[in-house]
Amino acid sequence: MFSLAGKTVVVTGGGRGIGRGIGLAMAEAGANVVVAGRGEATLLEAAEAIRAAGGTALAVTCDITQMADINALVAAATDAFGYIDCWVNNAGSASPSDNGPLLDIDEGQWDRVVDLNLKWTFFAAQAAARAMTRGGSIINLTSRSASQPSPMVGHYGAAKAGVESLTATMAVEWGHLGIRVNAIAPGVVLVDSLSTMQSESRQRRQIETVPMQRLGRVEDVAPLAVYFASDESQWVTGTVVPVNGGSRIPIGLLSYLHRVNKPKDDAATMA
Ligand SMILES: NC(=O)c1ccc[n+]([C@@H]2O[C@H](COP(=O)([O-])OP(=O)(O)OC[C@H]3O[C@@H](n4cnc5c(N)ncnc54)[C@H](OP(=O)(O)O)[C@@H]3O)[C@@H](O)[C@H]2O)c1
Questions:
Q1: Where in the sequence is the domain holding 19, given as residue range(s)?
Q2: Does the predicted model carry a pTM greater than 0.85?
Q3: How many independent structural domains does the chain possess?
Q4: Does a structural domain hold residue 2?
Q5: Who's near 81: CB < 8 A, 6+ residues apart?
Q6: Measured in angstroms, how far is the CA atom of residue 20 from the centroid of ligand 1?
Q7: Whole-number mean pLDDT of the chain?
């Protein structure tokens, strides 16, 4: 079950974090894996880790916010392995310097976050779909932020909500081409870049909101991606699957409300 032997999978942002884990899991299931991103060193390390585990990997440096790079990535994957069976739109993030309350977000912050997470996820998916002339699977990484309030990262949540909307429409428009499109919406998955979650006290507070009593791991997300890439999911399209340990409380929501709802003057509150 879930063999990807003979298939080729492209993972954007495959050099680190969730994307690295997805690449490893895809290779373990038998796929040729193309990892893409801007950081050459991390990409080479990720490709080496796949090879060390017995898999086949190609590292392609690519800025997903450049159309020429997207086209070059499609060409590199196709030249190396003949066909792209699955494309994982994993590249995305909201850099801490671009985050803040909605009253303060400026145009540059909005554009950087929404362009990377929405606009370029769309154009990458479009390029992948155009290359999938005999069908395939596209997997979009969204977030719990897409469907719940996301204080301090409202623009990121809006972009991910846009990706969930596109997932539904792509599934309809591309179904007759044999292309399936699904999304994975993780809760908090502890990766090195998640700077807001590095302190132990912050982690403890977040864990209190998770019925399964821990934060997510890359390994919690990757198996679902393997399923979506496999033929076993060939009648599954247009879905968004949450992977969040049952948590329904977004990252930062409690901290934000705690901060703004704190009584300003305890004496006045008592009166
Ligand atoms: N971790 C979580 O808790 C969580 C929760 C919900 C959703 N997600 C989503 O899951 C996905 C992976 O997140 P992560 O936590 O693994 O983040 P991460 O560790 O920060 O990794 C982000 C990846 O995206 C790549 N990337 C960023 N900008 C890029 C660009 N312009 N061109 C190409 N690649 C680019 C990065 O590679 P380079 O920097 O080398 O380019 C990196 O590989 C993202 O879409 C994120 O929004 C994460």
A1: 8-270
A2: yes
A3: 1
A4: no
A5: 8, 32, 34, 58
A6: 10
A7: 95
List beta partners, residue 136.
179
Please say if 156 is a catalytic residue: yes
CATH of the domain at 210: 3.40.50.720
The answer to the question of residue 3 being in a domain is: no
Q: What mean pLDDT do residues 43-63 have? A: 98
Ligand 1 atom nearest residue 93's Cα: 47
Q: Which atom of ligand 1 is nearest to the CA of 186?
A: 6
| Over residues 241-253, mean pLDDT | 89
Dist CA 37 CA 47 (whole Å): 12
- Domain presence at residue 21: yes
pLDDT at residue 270 tops 70: no
pLDDT band for position 266 (cuts 50, 70, 90): low
Q: Please name the helix (run of DSSP H) or strand (run of DSSP E) that holds residue 251, with its range, or none.
A: none
238/140 Cα distance (integer angstroms): 10
Of 26-35, 150-159, 215-224, 249-258, which gets the smallest average pLDDT?
249-258
Please give all residues whose beta carbon lies within 6 A of any atom in ligand 1, as ranges.
Answer: 12-13, 15-19, 37-39, 42, 62-65, 90-93, 116, 141, 143, 186, 188-189, 191, 193-194
| Residue 1 domain-assigned (yes or no) | no
